[in-house]
Design a protein that fits this description.
Its EC number is 2.8.1.4. Its main location: cytoplasm. With 405 residues, the chain is α/β, with parallel strands linked by helices. It is 40% helix and 21% strand. It contains 15 helices and 15 strands. Strands 1, 2, 3, 4, 5, 6, 7, 8 and 9 form a nine-stranded mixed β-sheet that branches. Helix 8 (260-278) crosses helix 9 and helix 8 crosses helix 14. It binds adenosine-5'-triphosphate and magnesium ion. Residues 185, 187, 343 line the site of magnesium ion.
Amino acid sequence: MQYDEVMIRYGELSTKGKNKRIFISQLAQNVKFALSDFEELKVHGERDRMHLELNGADSDAVLERLRSIFGIQTYSPVRRLERDIELVKKVAVEMIKELYSEGKTFKIATRRSDHDYELDTNDMNQLLGAEIFSQIEGIKVHMKKPDITLRVEIRKEGFFLSSKTILGAGGLPVGSSGKGMLMLSGGIDSPVAGYLTMKRGVTVEAVHFHSPPYTSPRALQKAKDLAAKLAAFSGSVQFIEVPFTEIQEEIKKIVPEGYLMTVTRRLMMRLTDRIREERKGLAIINGESLGQVASQTLHSMIAINDVTATPIIRPVVSMDKNEIIEIAQKIDTFELSIQPFEDCCTIFAPPAPKTQPKLEKAREYESRLDVEGLIERAMYGLVITKITVGDTLEAQQKADFSSLL
Ligand code: ATP
Ligand code: MG
């Protein structure tokens, strides 16, 4: 069925008091951005609801696109009709038939914002109810828990009918909680951490460390492909590549084996924090999960977190691997994440990193390096790319190919 409008309900947003206006305008902006290729579409962000006027845009495509926008609790496609009661009856029957199968119950729920209209809500419920009974054999009404609810709104501009409520992505509109730097590896955990933080309204920029020639271009591309998956939730993601080869080689040369991992992580954290400062981010996000590997014990966190006072958000810290994988599957990053490409951390990793590194030792070993010089050179080599939805390797190859024609 082709619809005329979509009605969006805010859910959690409605409880946000003063900030509500900011949330609504951020959401309206995100919705416009996500649907910018539908030029005919009009977005009206009102206090309690948002209305999208489709003006002929393909409603199935619009409904699908709305699924991944945070800040939407539920939404309903709506038919907008002339004030012609015969037409309303006909469409009401069509809409219920679309959802009906034997044994299902229904109810009509009318709201009237135009109080001058000759029928009141009761009249309307009864009129349409009677029509449904006469046209759909065997259907029963159920007031408390109907399977199908047909909502009818009587407004000055016409009749508005909806019968479906689709669950939105929940959360808060991306951008309404500021910006954070996601440490994005090619693994399973960090994309999930990014997704969960975006869900709470944070604009995420991806920071990825790579160490050519020890890590391949394919490993870098994998991280970019993951960023493209995350871009589905915000339209685009800034992807920041950090050249990490010199730092890893230096650490390998100078730091005792038991502390290679801890010092490497300290440098990653320092660099991410420097990037955050330059780009006016407010937090760092990573995919650490407590106890998963040696770098993710509480002792390690103390030794690594020591380099900054910036809030570190660890959305998956208390999750089991299965729980993380379940989310990775839902957001379609899992298959990409399990592709076997070497990560810069694993290549230089000693066989047995310390699970209980001492803070004093970590500091002492790190001080043997020219930390500032290393950081400056890495900062000088940053490469920043804007990644948009669908910006995968395949898409890029196609783009390259077409430019040759
Ligand atoms: P992931 O599945 O996210 O790779 P992991 O369980 O493999 O996590 P580690 O490899 O120890 O754990 O990494 C812990 C966290 O450090 C990652 O979740 C990520 O946030 C960050 N990290 C690791 N490697 C990189 C990298 N090459 N670039 C950016 N961040 C990284
Ligand atoms: Mg990893």
